[in-house]
């Protein structure tokens, strides 16, 4: 497959240093976007073509665009970190690129070559490098690669034209507040994904399916929803946008990739980091009754959620119909904190990158 060239068309009206610095001082999550974006077109006739870095701005779209009607969309999420020497690096971008290809295949969309995906991210980070927060905190530049159909029409079938884009948004430590353990609502009525469905593809449809349960969780004073398997409604799968880990003393356990949960890159990296630190790390099923019983009898010492946006976040309290329980006294546990620090140290360039996970950009 031909990797398209990315033509650079810089913005003539980038934000001033003062404007940018004001945004970087309190970035929140996904609130502000950098000065540029990357676009690459695909058509049945021409394949991938017309790669461009252009000023960030609105897309013009026909109301009958297929994406708007049938959710023909996939996305990715990754971060660029500023290292102590001032260099900027992304974390395992080839994993995001490969997952993007798998999501595309599942949604019958064209597969972007791995090199084109990484190049598009690199070009944007390089151009908007001043938006990568200074080294020292947990701030980073969040990258959002995504693909939409651009064909116009209401027929239900794969489109003959698509657009791949990358946008970037500075994100703060707020999205990763480790001192505020989450309260989780265990949804026994709604499921997120089903066997044979699209639960293991990173696509907007899964998020749309999760919103009603999320609203119910919020009403009950919970931060996030935990979903169970769709068939037996018994096996713990994941949260709406984060994978889960259970800590039993020196052993950590995460649900296996059955096809209905998203194969998180953070999840995968934690298996390795935990083994490096001498923990036993396992992929095996945990039932919701087991979770409750083990938390109540104290063998389950900690639970945490993980993903690119929030890194590792402790789960303090769990609520299900008729029961509420806590683990690690509702506080951040020590294994959670240790794994979190170990992973962040690699991402922030503070320790040797012995697995070759960091990709230097600028
Ligand atoms: C993106 C995502 C995750 C986390 O994946 P990472 O690669 O670790 O960021 C977990 N669950 C869902 C549903 C997701 O969309």
Structural class: alpha+beta
Query: What is the string of helix and strand elements?
Result: EHEEHEEEHHEEEHEEEEHEHEEEHE
User: Sheet with the most strands?
Assistant: 9 strands, mixed
Identify low-pLDDT runs. Answer: none
CATH architectural label of the largest domain: 2-Layer Sandwich
The total tally of domains equals 2
Distance between the termini: 26 Å
Radius of gyration: 21 Å
Share of helix, binned: 25-40%
* Count of β-strands: 18
CATH C-level name of the largest domain: Alpha Beta
Q: Assess the beta-strand content as a share of residues.
A: 25-35%
Total number of helical segments? 8
Could you please say which CATH topology of the largest domain applies here?
A: D-amino Acid Aminotransferase, Chain A, domain 1
Query: What is the fourth-level CATH superfamily of the largest domain?
Result: Aminotransferase class 4, branched-chain amino acid transferase, N-terminal domain
Q: Compute the average pLDDT.
A: 96
Bound heterogens, unique: pyridoxal-5'-phosphate
**Bulk shape:** globular
């Amino acid at each position: 497959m031909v990797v398209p060239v990315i033509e650079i068309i810089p913005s003539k009206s980038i934000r001033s240093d003062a404007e940018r610095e004001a945004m970087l001082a309190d970035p929140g999550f996904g609130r502000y976007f950098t000065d540029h974006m990357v676009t690459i077109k695909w058509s049945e006739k021409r394949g991938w073509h017309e790669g461009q870095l252009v000023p960030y701005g609105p897309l013009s779209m026909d109301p009958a665009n297929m994406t708007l009607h049938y959710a023909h969309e996939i996305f990715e999420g990754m971060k660029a970190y500023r290292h102590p020497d001032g260099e900027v690096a992304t974390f395992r971008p080839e994993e995001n690129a490969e997952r993007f290809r798998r999501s595309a295949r599942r949604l019958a969309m064209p597969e972007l070559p791995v090199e084109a995906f990484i190049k598009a991210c690199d070009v944007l980070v390089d151009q908007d490098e001043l938006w990568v927060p200074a080294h020292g905190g947990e701030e980073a530049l969040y990258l959002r690669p995504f693909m939409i159909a651009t064909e116009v029409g209401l027929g239900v079938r794969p489109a003959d034209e698509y657009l791949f884009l990358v946008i970037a948004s500075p994100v703060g430590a707020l999205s990763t507040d480790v001192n505020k353990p989450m309260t989780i609502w265990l949804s026994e009525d709604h499921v997120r994904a089903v066997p044979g469905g699209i639960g293991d593809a990173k696509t907007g449809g899964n998020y749309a399916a999760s919103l009603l349960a999320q609203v119910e969780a919020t009403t009950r004073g919970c931060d996030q929803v935990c979903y169970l398997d769709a068939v037996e409604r018994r096996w713990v799968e994941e949260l709406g946008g984060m994978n889960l880990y259970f800590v039993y003393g020196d052993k950590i356990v995460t649900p296996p990739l059955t096809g209905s949960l998203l194969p998180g890159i953070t999840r995968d990296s934690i298996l390795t980091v935990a083994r490096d630190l001498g923990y036993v790390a396992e992929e095996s099923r945990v039932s919701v009754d087991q979770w409750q019983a083990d938390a109540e009898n104290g063998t389950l010492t900690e639970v945490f959620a993980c993903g690119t946006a929030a890194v590792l976040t402790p789960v303090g309290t769990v609520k299900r119909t008729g029961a509420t329980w806590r683990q690690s006294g509702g506080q951040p546990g020590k294994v959670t904190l240790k794994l979190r620090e170990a992973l962040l140290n690699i991402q922030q360039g503070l320790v040797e990158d012995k697995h070759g996970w960091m990709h230097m950009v600028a």
